Amino acid sequence: xxxxxxxxxxxxxxxxxxxxxxxxxxxxxxxxxxxxxxxxxxxxxxxxxxxxxxxxxxxxxxxxxxxxxxxxxxxxxxxxxxxxxxxxxxxxxxxxxxxxxxxxxxxxxxxxxxxxxx
Length: 118
What we know:
Elements: E1 6-10, E2 13-17, H1 21-31, H2 35-43, H3 49-62, H4 67-77, H5 83-99
Antiparallel strand pairs: 1-2
Helix pairs in contact: 1-3, 3-4, 3-5
């Protein structure tokens, strides 16, 4: 399976997140559980904060971010905020790895509502 990149605004800019095969192994090692169990728990809202944090941190590292910078980004943009803010990003990163497709971010176009011509 090829690595799928998920791109999202994180912190102060658009960033790439990739859970490469090596990063999946590291995630499993850090959590002490297989990727399928982690994925299932996260989707079922039965996750630990460590799982969410590590998915994001390792996704950054997998995309080429220096590990020290990835940890600094976590400290600045994940740790001080409610976990719900980071949860959606972690789900998207896991979805990209598990399904092979990056979730499409829906951006509503600015549209003008024009009444039907009569």
